[in-house]
Design goal:
It contains 4 helices and 12 strands. It is globular. About 25% of the residues are buried.
């Protein structure tokens, strides 16, 4: 299992191991999560690949990213990456190696309220990669070694989704059945199902 080593300051509390949840064929893993229950909700940490730490301002990669503006993963925008492949390969989160990241620590209430946020630079060391079907199977199987942690992550997801809906957002994300809305609001089947 992976461990997180913070480059500045020290870890806040006992965080669970980060898990990257993406489709089976994903190569550019840009985030990972860790969740632990608290007496009044959860402590959620989202690790985001710190691409800026590896792309110098004004470099060829920086100019190319500025030209491309975004990564697109399908839909009306097609498939295009913001960064050149060698840069992306070097900076993506990956199992088995240290990866620079930004850690966004949040205290989430049982009602989905975000009560506190801290951001710091971190190094994620070998986060575990799982696809959506593997996560759904682990959530359903109480004997799976990651069941408890992933069940907590699913609970946070469900609470946050309910809160978004209460505030007028149309969002669908059903990990257990494999359906979600994409960035354009279209209902899609998760690739792992």
């Amino acid at each position: 299992m992976s461990r997180v080593q913070f480059t500045a300051g020290s870890p806040v509390g006992a965080l669970t191991d980060p898990v990257m949840i993406d489709s089976k064929d994903t190569v550019d893993r840009d985030d990972a999560i860790a969740v632990r229950p608290t007496s009044d909700g959860w402590r959620l940490t989202v690790y985001v690949a710190d691409v800026a730490s590896g792309v110098a301002l004004g470099s060829d990669a920086d100019r190319e990213a500025l030209r491309r503006r975004e990564s697109a993963y399908g839909g009306w925008r097609g498939r295009a990456k913001m960064l050149p492949r060698p840069v992306e390969d070097r900076l993506t989160l990956a199992p088995g190696r240290a990866c620079p990241a930004l850690a966004v620590h949040m205290k989430i209430g049982r009602d989905g309220s975000v009560n506190h946020v801290e951001v710091e630079r971190a190094t994620v060391r070998g986060a575990l990669a799982m696809d959506h079907a593997e996560v759904a199977a682990a959530v359903r199987n109480s004997d799976h070694p990651l069941h408890d942690g992933l069940r907590q992550a699913a609970a946070v997801s469900e609470v946050l989704l309910a809160r978004r809906r209460e505030h007028g957002a149309l969002a669908l994300y059903d990990l257990l059945s494999g359906w979600a809305t994409d960035e354009d609001g279209t209902v899609v089947r998760l690739a792992s199902f």
